[in-house]
């Protein structure tokens, strides 16, 4: 009986130590410039993710041909870090997403995940290092139904979608694009 209790306590302590180590490691990683935000613990709203050094832009410049729009609003073909709700409605996560269509109230986006989805037809590989210098591998863009996000959900501009992939996304009939 004592041996079983000893092993139960040892396993419990090992799991708790692993959880604490992982939590600490993610908190530290999220403080370094160029790392992906929203990877740490759970609960509460997350702060605006840090922009990698040397990528700051003035707050009002035009990015699109012939438009005079602010840099802090998403535009089609751009990748943004945004607070995206979970499909089951149980919460949300700051994650990268591709903007399909945008207006003054918000935007329609597709989620980007770092999880390997190479075996699925509803995901395509998306080059990551251009807009996420801390990435260790490419990510995957979900081609399922877009999600509508309010403009307040967008935290930080990450970059532009690869031109070839953007052409492919725009050619998909079930997705709205501007």
Question: Overview of this structure, please?
Answer:
The structure is a single chain. The chain is α+β, with helices and mostly antiparallel strands. It contains two helices and seven strands; from the N terminus they run αβββββββα. Strands 1, 2, 3, 4, 5, 6 and 7 form a seven-stranded antiparallel sheet that branches. A hairpin with a 2-residue loop joins strand 2 and strand 3. The chain is elongated and about 65 Å long. The relative contact order is 0.16. Residues 28-69 have low confidence and may be disordered.
Total helical segments:
2
**Coarse shape:** elongated
What is the alpha-carbon Rg in Å?
19 Å
How many beta strands in the DSSP annotation? Answer: 7
By helix and strand content, what is the structural category?
A: alpha+beta
End-to-end Cα distance = 68 Å
